[in-house]
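=== RUN LOG ===
request id: a7f3
mode: sequence -> structure
chains: 1
length: 233
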Amino acid sequence: MQEITLSKRLGVLASMVEPCDTVTDVGCDHGLLALWLIDKGICKKAAASDINRGPLDTARANAKAYGMQADRIDFILSDGLLGIAPFEKGSNTLVIAGMGGLLIKEILEKSRDKAKLYEPLILSPHTKQYELRRYLTENGYIITDERYVCEDEKLYVMIKACHARGRKTEPYSETELRFGRFTGRALEDKETADFFKARYEELRRLEGKEGLPEERRRILSEEAECYREVLRI
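=== RESULT ===
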């Protein structure tokens, strides 16, 4: 079978998937993540799902091009989890990536019972990470890991969560909701640290602009303070 190559972002996402029976990839795009996980023996079967037919057609074409056996991956047209029948047996990992945090939150909220059938959940919100972390921590999930990765001058975050099942953790602070609890490790990567520092300097510059409405200045100041806490400056 031809070697499947993942982007830097998808490579980090794939590294967070532990060996399991099945992976369901919601918002599968080209399907390469699911194909790679099967090829590397990380999972036995996968479901690649998308709300649009175009990405699914691309995923099917990629599966054929890479010689993937048809019984190892299902292609499902679905709005989030609504049209997906979870695999009945085994350890089932759920990946939701490549969309905004509010949409990921909506997908989980609309299928609360179905989401309980998956563990862990690996989520990659491109925006609104604060809101997604707050949703997870207030709705029966524990965030067990996070990774940051820079690609194409953008900073991406991947969040790994499991069901709390009665376990409790300390409430998240504003800074933790904004950046998570794994920034110490993330900032060991120079590219990530440089991105954080550049954003902090930009906030300082914006905060100091003349004629800025006070409410906007307050928001910028609060964000800058969170960056100062994380960067320890």
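=== NOTES ===
The chain is about 40% helix and 25% strand.
The mean pLDDT is 94.
=== END ===
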